[in-house]
Design brief:
The complex is a heterodimer of chains A (112) and B (560). With 112 residues, chain A is mainly α. Chain A contains two helices and two strands. In chain A, strands 1-2 form a two-stranded antiparallel sheet. Chain A is rod-shaped and about 100 Å long. The N and C termini of chain A lie far apart (102 Å). Chain B has 560 residues and is of the alpha+beta class. In chain B, strands 2, 3, 4, 5, 10, 18 and 19 form a seven-stranded mixed β-sheet that branches. In chain B, strands 12-11-23-22-21 form a five-stranded antiparallel β-sheet, with helices on both faces. In chain B, strand 11 and strand 12 form a beta hairpin. The longest helix of chain B has 21 residues. The chains are: A mainly alpha (112), B alpha+beta (560). At the A-B interface, helix 1, helix 2 and strand 1 of A face strand 3, strand 9, helix 9 and helix 19 of B.
Chain lengths: 112, 560
């Protein structure tokens, strides 16, 4: 009976000490994670700034014209059209034996 | 033996009571001082986005380097190590490190890469702290509108200044617990919260439209060797600013060497005599008041008319012409006659209604009201002068807002540039809705006037503003500036401008282009109208607004 009481008190003490130690240990762990978070956030911000400056229209336009020899479309080279919502059906006047190859690996078919 | 034990316990007890109870307050303070550290934390300044969420300005933590001169044995060696990384001469660093101080800044707000190299070196007596620095990743793009923030992260100009209270992060002193090694341990209490970053702004500006506008404006200003240029693109239906730029531009990342004159946003801080573009407003008033109809005939006096002992000239001599032709040819004599037919007060009231002479209250700092005097102060020539855009000063923003009112069917809108303010979690704090100021003309009048203004582009002075496939309505303007030496109108110092909207049947863009002091041919139709065409064409493409006129595409069929 006495032994059980002593054991109970001892385990209470151990539990208490363990709890205190663990709080401190977790405290350090949290601080470490926090500083890790700050480092990652810093890296994220750095990458966001970099992304933003790399995607700036001025830089892209310069790369397109200087490096890739692209040109801006001239007057009238871009035509915007209204897109009809319904599925376009191919309707052309029948020209007899006319065969149209749609794409490779697609069987030939006759156009009506 | 047992007495000794009891005595010992009593002794310990007395000491404990003394320390824990009697001296408790004093010792707690002492202990806290040793293991607590208070730090000032500042939340990051808010980010500025364009209408499509592209970052235009944001904060980033960057390294600042300090030295502890008193702990250095060999300052010249340390300086030699630092010099290539900091890009500062060895001598200068050494001088700082030889001071008898515990702390000295060596370099502030460096590039992140420099910080990493310093960490690798890990020099004794040299430390690195992180500080927030404002970055403008797009360089000079939108610089006049964004403004900039200073070294201490306070907004000094533009949106950075106007929205300072929203953008600024929370500043708070936080108490940290330190262990024996000075590391931070668990803070007191679990409810400690991180400092809150500033709110972010979403603009009505579109990065791509802004880029197109700046590129074409810069090119036009360079080509005509002009002093400066301004462009504003507005959504006429809402008053939202899609692009606003001044030329020459500046880079807000490198402000130090610039003259304040360079970063003034001329679109609203400078007023100018608008010249013929004001005839749009005079014509609107005349049509609304039924003083004129599009086919009313006006006699052009063959290019010369005397008013109040002065003579008004026309660039193109006209005899009889219709009201519509008067606008399309930009006849000064015709405009003066229309103004006189309206009378002083009616002309003044309409100008006032269209927003001239008062601030538009756009959410940008430094706006001026321009100059519109009351008819009581007018001279005998004033009504004629004002009708042709002299004796009145307007800002480009006022002009484009007024023309937007004609474009949208007669309602004057309040221009705005920030559409939303969001807090760090992304929840909207403030949201700007399009704001009607008042109706200035009827929808009918707006439609009639649009027809006349289309004629300016198809068969008048604004031919170079025509965009193939689209109906463009607009007006050219060429104003003479007052020569500061003679005090009279100069024949060489000009302001060429074009203001208009497209597509005329359902306007999506209202735009003003102002070129200040171009060399060579300074006519608005020559220097400014082509900018309208080039920008308009690219922006309509970008926005995917299809051409009104059907386009014939030659169809070819492959033969197999």
């Amino acid at each position: 009976m006495k032994g059980i009481a002593v054991a109970a008190v001892m385990s209470m003490i151990f539990l208490f000490v363990w709890e205190r130690v663990d709080v401190v240990r977790l405290g350090y762990h949290i601080e470490r994670l926090k500083s890790q978070k700050i480092l990652l956030e810093r890296e994220r911000d750095e990458l966001r700034v970099k992304l933003s400056s790399l995607t700036s229209p001025e830089r892209i336009a310069r790369a397109a014209t200087d490096k890739l020899n692209m040109v801006l479309p001239e007057k009238g080279q871009v035509v915007l059209v209204h897109l009809e919502p319904e599925v376009p059906s191919i309707q052309r006047p029948s020209t007899g034996e006319d065969e149209v190859k749609v794409a490779r690996n697609v069987p030939m078919r006759r156009m009506k | 033996m047992s007495i000794g034990l009891v005595l010992g316990f009593v002794l310990v007890l007395v000491r404990l009571v003394n320390l824990q109870v009697l001296q408790a307050a004093e010792l707690t303070v002492k202990a806290d001082r040793q293991h607590q550290k208070s730090v000032t934390l500042e939340g990051a300044r808010g980010t500025i986005y364009d209408r499509r969420g592209k970052v235009l300005a944001m904060n980033m933590e960057v390294p600042s380097v300090f030295g502890v001169p008193t702990s250095l044995d060999n300052p010249d060696q340390t300086a030699r190590h630092l010099s290539p990384i900091l890009h500062v001469r060895t001598g200068e660093i050494e001088k700082k490190l030889r001071q008898d101080k515990h702390f000295v800044w060596l370099a502030r707000k460096l590039e992140p890469e420099q910080g990493r190299r310093l960490e690798q070196l890990s020099l004794a007596g040299v430390g690195v702290v992180m500080e927030g620095r404002r970055f403008y990743p797009k360089g000079p793009l939108l610089s006049h509108v964004l403004g900039f923030a200073g070294m201490d992260d306070r907004g000094l100009e533009g949106l950075e200044l106007r929205y300072e209270t929203f953008l600024r992060g929370e500043k708070r002193v936080v108490v940290l617990q330190r262990d024996a090694l000075g590391r931070a341990v668990f803070p007191k209490g679990f409810n400690e919260q991180a400092v809150v970053a500033g709110h972010s702004l979403t603009l009505t500006i579109d990065e791509v439209i802004q880029y197109i506008a700046e590129k074409e404006l810069d090119e036009a200003v360079n080509r005509s060797s002009a002093k400066s240029g301004t462009i504003i693109i507005m959504n006429p239906k809402t008053g939202a600013i899609l692009a606003m730029a001044g030329s020459p531009r500046f880079d807000p990342n490198a402000m130090a060497a610039l003259n304040p004159d360079r970063w003034r946003n001329r679109a609203l801080t400078d007023s100018y005599e608008p010249g013929s573009t004001l005839k749009v407003v005079v014509a609107a008033a005349a049509l609304q008041e039924k003083v004129m109809a599009p086919n009313s005939m006006i006699f052009g006096e063959n290019g010369q008319m005397a008013v109040a002992n002065t003579v008004i000239h026309d660039h193109e001599k006209s005899g009889w012409m219709s009201f519509a032709q008067m606008v399309q040819r930009s006849s000064n004599i015709g405009a003066a006659k229309v103004g006189m037919a309206l009378g002083d007060w009616r002309l003044f009231d309409y100008l006032k209604e269209f927003g001239f002479g008062e601030k538009s209250h756009i959410d940008l700092p430094g706006e001026v009201p321009g100059l519109l005097r009351s008819p009581r102060e007018w001279g005998r020539r004033s009504v004629a002068s004002i009708s042709m855009g002299q004796e009145i000063a307007v800002t480009p923003l006022q002009m484009v807002t007024a023309v937007s009112a004609i474009a949208n069917g007669g309602t004057l809108m309040k221009p705005f540039i920030v559409s939303e303010v969001r807090n760090i979690t992304g929840l909207p704090v403030a949201h700007t809705l399009p704001q009607h100021r008042h109706r200035v003309i009827s929808a009918e009048t707006a439609r009639t006037l649009t027809g006349i203004l289309e004629g300016v582009v198809t068969s008048g002075t604004g031919g170079k503003a025509a965009i193939p496939g689209y109906r463009v309505a607009g007006k050219t303007g060429t104003a003479q500036k007052v020569d500061p030496r003679t005090g009279a109108y100069s024949s060489t110092l000009l302001v060429g401008s074009f203001v208009g909207y497209v597509p005329a049947e359902d306007p999506q863009l209202a735009m003003i282009v102002v070129i200040d002091e171009p060399h060579g041919e300074g006519w608005g139709g020559v220097v400014a109208a082509p900018v309208f065409r080039k920008v308009g064409e690219q922006v309509l493409n970008y926005l995917g607004i299809p051409a009104e006129e059907p386009v014939k595409i030659a169809m070819t069929r492959a033969a197999f």
